[in-house]
TrEMBL record:
Keywords: Isomerase, tRNA processing. The keyword Repeat does not apply. GO terms for molecular function: RNA binding; tRNA pseudouridine(38-40) synthase activity. It catalyses: uridine(38/39/40) in tRNA = pseudouridine(38/39/40) in tRNA; a uridine in tRNA = a pseudouridine in tRNA. Its EC number is 5.4.99.12. Pfam families: PseudoU_synth_1. Residues 33-125, 169-204 form the Pseudouridine synthase I TruA alpha/beta domain. Residues 244-255 have a biased composition (Polar residues). The lineage of its organism: Eukaryota, Metazoa, Chordata, Craniata, Vertebrata. This is tRNA pseudouridine synthase.
Amino acid sequence: MCFIRVSLCSSLKIRVPLRLTDYSFSHSGVVRAPETQAVLGVQNYLEMAAQKLRPVGKVTFSISSRTDSGVHAICNSAHVDIERTPDKSPFSEETLVEALNYHLQPEPISIRKAIRVRDDFHARFKAISRTYFYRVVTGCKYRSLPVFERDLCWAAAERHLDVPRIQEAAQFFVGTHDFSGFRSIHKNTPCQSPVRTLLKADITPSTSLLPNPLQNSSLQFWDFTFKGSEDDQRSGRCRFGESHTATNKISSGRA
């Protein structure tokens, strides 16, 4: 989900959140990469698309969930200030979505929705929770995965997954804990505190993204879901792991 912030203090500037999805194996991750780098980030393409709308000045996106390469966004959020010249009216939410998606082609990035919000809305600092999904399939190796599932789930050759024991173990992570043992840190790490609150850890049976009656019946798909709260006072990236799909929920902050 990508939200664009556009200031309401001027009739020429609007603050609008956008819902965004992306398939990140084509990118270095979400955040902007150096322009000299061979593989760019999702933020690079968002900003290049926004500049083609001929705004006043350079636009910069602030993205809520800073996922890495291989972590696909089901629904991420971001914001950006866009101001037009005095002879042009502000973009409507619908026009902004359509125009950005046009200029994002052929990248696997899609703006899904725009909503106008207040000037104090911030996609990163106003986040209230983040949910990560890990998809696992048992009964085959990676090379035997259905072609539409490759890079979208983790293949395990074992045919049996002891789900009750995994569920039991996962519950030890629920609650507020010190996760120092699950991360590396240095002086430039924006979120210094290792204390996090995990609201949900669940494992449920799932299905293929593209069901096929001729598909190997021995394949069993599983969704591992982890949801964590987001403290508005934290300025750093607060997440509990890297998954193949990610959902980011934010406070509405409507104007």
